[in-house]
Amino acid sequence: MSATEALWQFAIVAALLTITPGMDSALVLHAAIRHGRGPAFAAGAGICLGALVWGIAAALGLSALFAVSALAFTVLKVVGAAYLIFLGARMLWSAFRPGHAAAAPAAIAAPGIRAAATKGLLTTLLNPKVAVFYVAVLPAFLPADVPAALFGAALASIHALESAVWFTVLILGAQALRRWMARESTQRGIDVVTGLAFVGFGAALAFTEQ
């Protein structure tokens, strides 16, 4: 396999992974609907950075630790699951709190750009499934005659770029419906659905086998 073939084939695999519904898309869409473009793009940037970190780590062989070490995988799994459940519980609390739209907790209602980016980054870094995906998939697209770290970074950058494009589509789509999205009943429903999704993601992750 040539380097060009590897890049194109990985781009197809990464694109399919990107558009598959998951916690990353849910987080960005929720941020776009509840908080606006700035926090949504920041969350997306954090997610892309996290994917880039895992991609480089996989190319260097570092994230293979989570594929072979039961203890490392379990620790990351438990921490990641707890974090996702915490995010989901906060969204549910916001949804059912009296005065939901007008008096939501400040941390929920108006997160800063840095806070949104950190949330996206942690959501990706604390997900052992991302680490295992890169460990299992990325080596198959590393030609023997290329620098592993550099080419791994290139592959991860492709995934990050595709994710950025997908997140932009989600954000602009949400903004196009901003009048309907601004209704209190809609906002409450969004928090409930997204909160339950994150709790579900966290619970599923907690019971994931290595």
UniProtKB/TrEMBL annotation:
Transmembrane stretches, start-end: 6-29, 41-60, 66-87, 121-142, 148-177, 189-207
Keywords of this entry: Cell membrane, Membrane, Transmembrane, Transmembrane helix
PANTHER family in alphabetical order: ARGININE EXPORTER PROTEIN ARGO, ARGININE EXPORTER PROTEIN ARGO-RELATED
Keyword Transferase: no
Source species, domain of life: Bacteria
Protein name: Threonine/homoserine/homoserine lactone efflux protein
Molecular function (Gene Ontology), one example: amino acid transmembrane transporter activity
Membrane topology note: Multi-pass membrane protein
Key word tRNA processing present: no
Main localization of the protein described in the UniProt heading: membrane
Taxonomic path: Bacteria, Bacillati, Actinomycetota, Actinomycetes, Micrococcales
A GO cellular-component term linked to this record: plasma membrane
Subcellular location(s) per record: Cell membrane
